[in-house]
Amino acid sequence: MSDHVLDVRDLRVVLGDRVAVDGIDLTVGPGERWGLIGVSGAGKSMTANAVAGLLPPDARREGTLHTGGRVTLVAQDSATALHPLVPVGRQVAAPLRRHHGLGRHAAARRAEDLLADVGLPDGTARTRPAELSGGQRQRVALAAALACDAALLVADEPTAALDPTVARDLLAQLDRSLTTAGTALLLVTHDLTALAAVCGHVAVLDEGRIVERGTVDDVLTAPHHERTRALVDAARSLVPRTLPV
User: Fold this and answer.
1) Fewer Cβ atoms within 10 A, N terminus or C terminus of the chain?
2) Is the pTM value of this prediction over 0.85?
């Protein structure tokens, strides 16, 4: 386990009488970037929530799940992830004080640095979420996640609510930030272009099970499972030049 930031064995998540995740095995090494793809209801987000420790109260988790360090989450909806009345600088500073023991002024200065690192302009720390665009709020959420100095960042459809240009910029920033911090990534996405932009490995889920896995280049250029082939064919029909060939 010492060589992994995430080690999942036979993970099952049961909601009532429905099995949402059915026997997943997955290991993520330090700095590795894994994507989880699949159709809606395949079990991607439920797997991510299990890893992040955010399963709903009525969910039952079975199997083993070990992490080799702190895990942090960037949610899909930054509007609800951020407190609407608190300046974003204070929200980024909070994990710095909680996890690193920084004083108020030191945390505030580091929060400003992190906001600048994710491409936000000077003065952003004093603004509230409602004053920012959707893309800017997602950058704030990324800065707050990086403030945790986590071994693994779980990102659940972080660009789903953004227009393509903003999404592309956010993914580029995510790539730079992960590289600088040496943080591993578990990305939940339905967007194969986003997957190809930031991930090196991919697991394909269908009905709660991993049906195919490998490097992104191998899986997207020569998919074996019928579900993977359908996802790749659909993506190529929309954006044929953005995926590996």
Assistant:
1) C
2) yes
